Each structure stands twice: as C-alpha cells, then as structure tokens.
Amino acid sequence: MIQPIMSKHLETCPWAQGELYVEYHDSEWGQPCYDEHRLFEKLCLEGQQAGLSWITVLKKRPNYRARFHGFDPVLVAAMTDEDIEECLLDAGLIRHRGKLEAIRKNARAWVAAEKEGLNWSEWLWSFVGGSPIINRYAQLKECPAQTDESKAMSKALKKIGFGFVGPTICYAFMQSMGMVNDHLTNCPCHPDNL
Q1: What φ, ψ does residue 181 adopt, rounded to 5°?
Q2: H/E stretch holding 40
Q3: C-alpha to C-alpha distance for 125 and 114, rounded to whole angstroms
Q4: Is there a catalytic annotation at residue 110?
Q5: 34 noted as active-site residue
Q6: DSSP 8-state code for residue 133
Q7: What is the DSSP letter of 118?
Q8: Residues 54, 86, 101, 137: which is the catalytic one?
C-alpha cells in the first residue's frame, strides 16, 4: 500500500500579528527590492525604528511619506531646519530630533553619492553579492540581529555621511528589502515553500 505524502504545515512568521503586520509580511518583507526610491525610504524608516517596535513605524509610515516628500531624496535633502522643527511637532512621527535630522542627512549623502555616479541599488545589493541570501531558520530566535554583511554596510554608509545606520538597523533593512530572506522555513513566504 502506498502511503500518502504528508504536506508540510505552514504558518506565517510569528512576529506578523494583526492585519497591518500580516499585510506587510505577506506583500513586502523579504521580497527582493531593487527600486532606489523604495530602498532610500526603507533605509530611513529602519533608522526611525531604533529602540522601538517596527509596528510603531509602520503605523506612522503614511505620515512620514507626507512630511518627507514621499522620500524623494532631492526634496528631503532641501528641507530646512524650520521643516525639521515642524516635524518635531507632528504626533504622527516619532518626535526624536536626531532621528528626524538623520533622514535629511541621509538624503544629502544619498544625493551627493548619486552625483558622483553611484548606482544605489547595485551598491546596496553588493553587500550580499547581488542576490538574496536565503536563510533556513526554523525559529525566530535563530535569526541574527546583525551579520558581517550588515556590519560592512553600516560602516560604508557611515563613511559617506549616513546616520542611524548601525549594523542591526542595516540587517533589518536587508531583511525587509529581501537582500536576506529570513522568513522561517515553515512560513508560506519562504522561497522553499513557493
């Protein structure tokens, strides 16, 4: 008698709880992104998360997009001190001067490097060799907070003038942009399950 093949029981990564988180997990997190505009936005937003939960930033993302010109680096780089002061009064943002000023600082560094001919998508992806690193972790506790690749990215970004881009922030950025796939092995979004 032939035994039926048992199908693998799949569950969404345990951190994705609640409608907003599930939508983000299923439609964005871990999916390779090469779009420079989205890469800039996420790099800035990951810095806003420092010391907080990502859900806090995710809920405020529409306000960040409104206040920071849809994360157009040229427009953000042109923001004045008065603009930053107004942002500090907006309860729809994380009102931390250093974090908000870092978005403008990062935009200025981004624009300057672009003027020098840097292709941001290629450069950022070069830290993972140009294609996603597919990890196979069964439990959330196995996922690292930072890696050699995120340390190298952090160091390189700081060298060209970025702020709030420590190795842990860079690793979260790499996970969210699909440079590293850390969906758990029993998650329907893990590449082995697609």
Answers
A1: -105, 105
A2: helix 36-49
A3: 15
A4: no
A5: no
A6: E
A7: -
A8: 54
Measured distance CA(194)–CA(176) in Å, rounded = 18
Q: What is the DSSP string of 144-188?
A: -S--HHHHHHHHHHHHTT--S--HHHHHHHHHHTTSEE---TTST
Strand locations in 58-166 (E): 133-134
DSSP conformational letter for 142: G
Taking only the tens place, the pLDDT of each residue in 1-48 is 555 444 578 999 999 999 999 999 999 999 999 999 999 999 999 999
Tokens read off for 139 = 């439990």
Is 46 annotated in the active site? yes
Within 8 A by CB and 6+ apart from 165, the residues are: 43, 47, 106, 153, 154, 157, 158
pLDDT digits (tens, 9 = 90+) for 85-113: 999 999 999 999 999 999 999 999 999 99
Q: Is the pTM of this model over 0.90?
A: yes
Length of the chain: 194
Terminal C-alpha separation, the chain: 30
